[in-house]
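Lay summary. Proteins are chains of building blocks that fold into shapes, and those shapes determine what they do. In this project we predict the shape from the chain. Here is one chain we studied, written as its sequence of building blocks.
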Amino acid sequence: MDNVFYYDKFRNYLINEKKASSNTLSSYLRDIRQFGEYLDSHEDVGYTDADELVLGNYISFLRSAGKSVSTVSRNIASLKCFYSYLVSQRLAESNPTGKLVPDKTTQKLPQILTSKEVELLLEQPERNDMKGYRDKAMLELLYATGMRVSELISLNTSDVNLNIGVVRCVSHDKERFVPMYPAAIKALSEYLEFVRPQMIARDDEPSLFVNVSGERMSRQGFWKIIKSYQAKAHIEKDITPHTLRHSFAAHLLENGADLRSIQEMLGHADISSTQIYSQLVKKQLKEVYNKTHPRA
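And here is the predicted shape, written in a compact code that computers can read:
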């Protein structure tokens, strides 16, 4: 059996059994494909013939090529997942990745906006046309719920309950319900009542947010929207859709929310993913202290 067979089997496993996200699927498959290309050009062996020495040589090859610590670590994770699958399916006799250890790296804290910067950003959409109403609703909803941009653009009208002020988010076959503050409910109500009916391409369109063609908004489309308002607001920080998610979590924590509640609203499977915001808040408090204390 050649490498293509094992690659395709792994791809089907990630899609049908592991239910991997599109980003995980893309990165894992890219890593395994590039590893296969390395085997063809440098080792002249197939996936199931590669041993610990070959795997070690490959990781050294990546490092010598100037790959970042995070890229090398991701490749190691991809290889471990790949070979664990092969062994579990008895497609490989042993797992050669046992001695691969990711490089230690300092966890990079996410960048967040201050409350004033968030307010400035949210003020940018001018509600004098349909696009302005839609953009206002999208930005308010993103900051109100802390949802991922993939979740935002995947929303259907049936996922929103304006009467009780909650929105239903679905990710990796798991659902959660997140409350919305009054300004977000108002912006969404205005968009749904006055704007969306005029923007949709067909009456049975389920998407909550649509583009100028009347079809579901894309990630790229929303990325351009948020970048345009960043420039309009003259905010120097590099704002991405995820910046508002990070800001949502950090601001809740600053104002007394507990980590478990934030974890549930963000949809984190593990509390350790949420704990990074505690480090972020502590870091900011230290910076404020150093800037303002007369003896600091």
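What the prediction tells us: The chain has two domains: 3-88, 115-291.
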